[in-house]
Amino acid sequence: MEDDRVAIGRLMARFFAAVSFDQSGRPDYEALHDLFVEEGLLFKCVGEVPEVTSVDEFIRPRRALVEAGTLTAFREAELDETTEVFGRVAH
Prior knowledge:
alpha+beta
């Protein structure tokens, strides 16, 4: 089970690296496709109703902000983590 948690940690680090960028850089949104199965979904559980998107639906509005020059830098980082593994499912 510890190996699963380490692998998930590495996967999350790759996710944060793909969406984060400095003013002189650009996000690597295309790298996100390698982190998910084809049918993979992202869940944003803030507020009363969860926001559920495909990888492309997640990328589209963010890419539009970058291309419009509205979003010029972004940093996503993990401040704390709890990984729970239930058989072949983790969250």
